[in-house]
From TrEMBL:
CDD domains: cupin_KdgF (cd02238). This is Cupin domain-containing protein. InterPro entries: Bacilysin_H2HPP_isomerase, Cupin_2, KdgF, RmlC-like_jellyroll, RmlC_Cupin_sf. It comes from Ensifer canadensis. PANTHER family: H2HPP ISOMERASE.
Amino acid sequence: MTLPTYPAISTDTGVTRQVLSHSPEIMVVSFRFESGASGRLHSHPHVQSTYVSRGRFRFFRDGEAHELKAGDSLVIPSNTEHGCQCLETGELIDCFTPRRDDFL
């Protein structure tokens, strides 16, 4: 069985997103950030977990700042306002449940 390959797409200046795998219940996505790039504040109905595979980030979750480095992770509850700023070029591996159909 051959799995589909999803292209990396630019979502903002210095940010790319690539869907790695998904099913209706869960989605795994890679976000790559250049130093200084940011993920704007937003919210969505999906529960999200983020894992810092490399780099350093400042996350904002419900008005609180959290600094994360490679090996750290954070869970973002459904409908919680969040975003991030990349402090050192890196990559986030995010899981969403259920799947983010808007990413397909």
